[in-house]
Amino acid sequence: MRLNGTIILKGAGLHSGKECELIIEPCDSPEIIMNNVPISKFRTNGSNRGSDYIFGSEIESEKIMTCEHVLSALAGLDIFSGVKLTVRGGEMPALDGCADRVCSEILKHCEGSENANVIELTQPIIIYGNKNRFVAAFPCNEFHVTYSVEYKYIGCQIMDYTHSPENYLSEISRARTFAYESDIEYLRSHGMALGGTLDNAIVIGEHEIKASGGLRFANEFVRHKILDLIGDLASLGKKINAHIIAVRAGHELHLRLAEKIKNLQNLKGEKILNG
Fold this sequence. Notes:
alpha+beta; lpxc deacetylase, domain 1; five-stranded mixed β-sheet; 30% strand
């Protein structure tokens, strides 16, 4: 799909709590532009401040936080070009804590289809973290994800996801971000999660899970991690065909994988990637 109109979204940033604005508008560019810079040119960083499940991707040069939900919405709808994002306030608006509202607005202002440039893997790439965490990308003729998470009070959740815009809208876009109730006081005392509410986040307590309207899916937590992964990989600036396997991963590992793929693309004569 291609954007054919301008979208303006305003609201508090998830972490700063300050009023932020996002303008999404069409442009003539082979990839997504954010604050006048092609998305693939940013150096991305998964924040490790506190617990990585609550912290969004941060664009280091611009210090734009919590980009992954909006980028996930665009990539989830197979939009990888012809879009300019202007962010004011240093952070994306938290909105509904997922990608649902952004997707709804995009669908009101888009048309047709687009043949995005595609990265095709020719051999596996594996990124390891601590405590047996990892994310791996294997050659595949489509974008497919197998994601496993394990959280205190929740247990283990595993999901297989095969990408299409239709599947993204029905299975992924509505899954919200989440945090432990026991972490909230610490986070806010350090100037984070100041814009978090039960309208844009799930709060996990020892005896109950709090969320506006209740959980949308029994496995909403692993679905949100897939949403994050899709948004983090959008920083490649292109669609990727791969089977991604992630075990207890998060923004840091997602973005290390994206940076590894970018670096391999830039190596002359490197045959690991096409695209």
